[in-house]
Amino acid sequence: SDMEKGTYPHFMLKEIDEQPFVMRKIINEYQNENNELKLDADIRSAMQKTDRVYIIAAGTSYHAGLVGKSFIEKIANIPVEVHVASEFSYNMPLLSDNPLFVFISQSGETADSRGVLVKIKEMGHPALTMTNVPGSTLSREADYTLNLYAGPEIAVASTKAYTAQIAVLAILAVDTAQAKGLELEFDPMQELAIAANAMEILTDQKDEIEGLARDYLPTTRNAFFIGRSADYNVCVEGALKLKEISYIQAEGFAGGELKHGTIALIEDGTPVIALATQANVNYSIRGNVQEVVARGANAMVISMKGLEQDEDAFVLPHVHELLTPLVSVVPMQLLAYYAALHRGCDVDKPRNLAKSVTVE
Ligand code: G6P
C-alpha cells in the first residue's frame, strides 16, 4: 500500500520513484474522455475574474509557487505574486481590485498558511487551495480545492508533492488560457506526458546520480546551486532538499547574483551545482560556471539535451522549456538522498523537522 515502503529502504526514495506515475494520474484526473481539461467551472470563472493571483505557501510548496507564477503569467497572462505565508501577515502587499488567493499546501494543515487564509476570508477575498489532502483544514476553509493526486507523502522532505503541485499549476494556467481564448503554441497535456516519461528515465539513472553525490558531496560542509530563470527556481528547491536531510549548508542563487556576494564564499573544492536547461540563458550560466571554476570550485553542470557541453556531469532528457523544473528537480532530489544516505543521516525523519507544522 501507499503507507508501506515495500522493497524500498526509505519512503523518500519510493516517493521520488512514484513521480512519473503521479504525473500520469494527474493527466488522467484533469482530462475527460475527449482529452479536454475538466476543471471545476467555479475555479475557471474565479481565474477569469481575477486581475492578480496571490500565491501563499511555505517551504517546498513555496518553491512550487515560484514555478507556478511563471506558468500563470506566461500561459494565462495574469500577474502573480508569490508570498511566504509567515511573512504575508506583517508585510501584506497592497492588493489589487480583484485578488484571488491560491494556497499551495501538501498537507493542507500548515498554520502559517492557515493564518493568511483566515485573514483574507475576513477581508472577503476568494481562496483556492491546492492540496494533497482534500479534507484538510485549508481545503475546507477555502472556496475551491484542486487536488494533487500524489498519494500519501510520508518522508519529511517533500518530493512528489512538489512535482504534483507544478503539474497542477500548469493545468490551472492552461485551463485559464483556454477559458480566455488565448492561443497556445504547444499541446500542454502531451508535453506533460513527455515530462513524465523523462522523469521515469531519470529515476532509472540512480546509480549515476549516486556516483555524483559521492564524487561532489562526500565530506563538504557547504554547497551552492546556481541557475538562471526557471533553473533558479529549481536551485532553491535543490538547496532546500540537500540542507533538510544531509545537513550540508546549501544555498540556491541566481547566476547573476553570484558576483554581488556569494562568489566570495567559493574556495578550493567548494561544490557548485549548476543547472542549464534554458536556451536563452545557457551562455550566461556557462560564464558563471567558468567564474567559480577559476576560483577553485568543483562544478557539476546538469544540462538539458540540446544545450549540453562535453564537460557536463549529467544531461537531462529534452522536455518543453516551461516544464524543465519537473525533470531538473529529480537529480536534485536524488543527490540530496544519496548525500544524506552516505553521511548516515535519517533520510525520512531529519532532525528538528516535522512533516507538517501546525503551530505558527
Ligand atoms: C514543513 C515540511 C516541508 C513543507 C512545509 C510546507 O516545513 O517539513 O517539507 O514543504 O512544511 O508544508 P505544506 O504541507 O503546507 O506543503
Structural notes for this entry:
The structure is a single chain. This protein is α/β, with parallel strands linked by helices and 360 residues long. Helix content is 45%, strand content 15%. The protein has 13 helices and ten strands. It has helices spanning 11-17, 19-29, 41-49, 59-76, 85-88, 111-122, 137-141, 160-179, 188-203, 206-216, 230-246, 282-294, 324-342, and strands at residues 52-57, 80-84, 99-105, 127-131, 144-147, 222-227, 249-254, 271-276, 298-304, 314-316. The strands form two sheets. The chain has a five-stranded parallel beta sheet, sandwiched between helices. It has a five-stranded parallel beta sheet with strand order 7-6-8-9-10, with helices on both faces. Helix 4 links the parallel strand 1 and strand 2 (80-84). Helix 2 runs parallel beside helix 8, helix 4 (59-76) runs antiparallel to helix 11 (230-246) and helix 10 crosses helix 13 (324-342). The model has no long low-confidence stretch (mean pLDDT 96).
Q: Encode the helix/strand succession as letters.
A: HHHEHEHEHEHEHHHEHEEHEEH
Largest sheet: 5 strands, parallel
Low-confidence region ranges: none
Shape: globular
Strand share of the residues? 15-25%
Over all CA atoms, what is the radius of gyration? 20 Å
Distance between the termini: 33 Å
Q: How many DSSP H or I helices?
A: 13
Q: Are any ligands bound, and if so which?
A: 6-O-phosphono-alpha-D-glucopyranose
- Report the helical percentage: 40-55%
Number of strands: 10
Mean pLDDT metric: 96
Structural class: alpha/beta
Trace the largest sheet across and list its strands. Answer: 2-1-3-4-5
